[in-house]
Amino acid sequence: MFLHNKRLMYTVRVDEPNPQFARLLLEQFGGANGELAAAMRYFTQAWNEPDGARRSMLADIATEELSHLEMVGQALVLLQRGTPSAEVDKVEGDYLGDLLEGKHEDYIELSTTAPASVLSGGGAALMDSSGKRFTADWIDTLGEPSADLRSDIAAEARAKIVYERLIKQCADPGLKDTLTFLMTREIAHQQMFESALAALVPNFPPGKLPGDEALGHTYIHDSDSFAGPADDAPVGFDLAQGNNTWGFELDADPIGKAAEQQIL
Question: Which residues are CB-neighbours of 162 under 8 A, at least 6 positions away?
Answer without folding.
Answer: 27, 28, 31, 33
